[in-house]
Amino acid sequence: MKFFLMMLFFGMMTGVIGSVQATPVSAVSATGTGTFNNSPDMLIDGVLASEGSLWKAGTSVWWSGMSPTFTIDLGGVVLLEDLLVQVDNNDAYRFEYSENNNTWSSLFDIQVSDGEVGWGMDTMSTDSQNSEYIASLDFVPVDARYLRVFAIGGDNSYSVSEIQAFAAPVPEPSTIMLFGLGLLTLAGASYRRQKAGLYAE
Ligand SMILES: [Ca+2]
Ligand SMILES: [Ca+2]
Q: How many domains does the chain have?
């Protein structure tokens, strides 16, 4: 009976965890250093240009040279699961993450050859369920509050139009309490049945 309960517990946990989708994170700010065109707010405004559109699009931040770096603040540390980004397709970009805006670690590099459009802005995702998925960008979930991106190669004409973060949702306390109450009820019922001799161990 204990084994049965344990199996039920793990089954329920798997169901609870498996059914939860990564949720979009609303970034609170985007800033840039160096010389560039358009506001870094473009990076977090939720607007994706059409794939293949001009790299100097009004919906993107664009620049020449490798000095600019753009930093996004997610407002708090999240378990970062995926990114959806849109960059100029013929360049290489490095994406990094940080918990404190001080110590940075590499998340992934977009290579010049990544993406599927022949020219212009290209949407890319690290989510295997997304049609824009690029496996080489996929990463193991990390704790992150800050994201930053900068160019590491290409034709010296760079553009990023969007950086969308997706994080593991934090369960509501009420959900956890209901789940716990359910388990206690199950355990209690099992104990009473055992006591009544309806089940043998
Ligand atoms: Ca694409
Ligand atoms: Ca380019």
A: 1
